[in-house]
UniProtKB/TrEMBL annotation:
<dbReference type="InterPro" id="IPR001469">
    <property type="entry name" value="ATP_synth_F1_dsu/esu"/>
</dbReference>
<dbReference type="GO" id="GO:0046933">
    <property type="term" value="F:proton-transporting ATP synthase activity, rotational mechanism"/>
</dbReference>
<comment type="similarity">
    <text>Belongs to the ATPase epsilon chain family.</text>
</comment>
<feature type="domain" description="ATP synthase F1 complex delta/epsilon subunit N-terminal">
    <location>
        <begin position="4"/>
        <end position="83"/>
    </location>
</feature>
<dbReference type="InterPro" id="IPR036771">
    <property type="entry name" value="ATPsynth_dsu/esu_N"/>
</dbReference>
<keyword id="KW-0066">ATP synthesis</keyword>
<keyword id="KW-0472">Membrane</keyword>
<keyword id="KW-0813">Transport</keyword>
<protein>
    <submittedName>
        <fullName>ATP synthase subunit epsilon</fullName>
    </submittedName>
</protein>
<dbReference type="GO" id="GO:0045259">
    <property type="term" value="C:proton-transporting ATP synthase complex"/>
</dbReference>
<dbReference type="InterPro" id="IPR020546">
    <property type="entry name" value="ATP_synth_F1_dsu/esu_N"/>
</dbReference>
<dbReference type="GO" id="GO:0005886">
    <property type="term" value="C:plasma membrane"/>
</dbReference>
<dbReference type="Pfam" id="PF02823">
    <property type="entry name" value="ATP-synt_DE_N"/>
</dbReference>
<keyword id="KW-0406">Ion transport</keyword>
<keyword id="KW-0139">CF(1)</keyword>
């Protein structure tokens, strides 16, 4: 099974790093998912939630206000100014 090597950082810390099955990001032109073996991608992020689904099924979700995501050869880099815990829907 293929997987993604993910590094999710802010300007002052690493938010999450590890192996994931899928990543969902809020790009400026719409939310999209990143899966293993996808074409190289570079996108600017908008306000919304970054969601990382680890290989064990656990989910990490953070609210971001912008940034960028890069994916090439199953290596995903997410860089943002700030990443807050996602608010749950009430």
């Amino acid at each position: 099974m293929s997987s993604l090597e993910v590094t999710f950082v802010t300007s002052d810390r690493t938010v999450w790093t590890g192996t994931a099955a899928q990543v969902v990001v809020p790009a400026v032109d719409g939310s999209f998912g990143i899966l293993p073996r996808m074409q190289p991608t570079l996108a600017i992020l908008d306000r919304g939630n970054v969601r990382i689904i680890a290989e064990d099924g656990s989910v990490t979700e953070r609210e971001v206000q912008g940034g960028f995501v890069s994916m090439d050869s199953d290596v995903v880099t997410i860089a943002v100014d700030q990443a807050d815990r996602a608010r749950s829907a009430s």
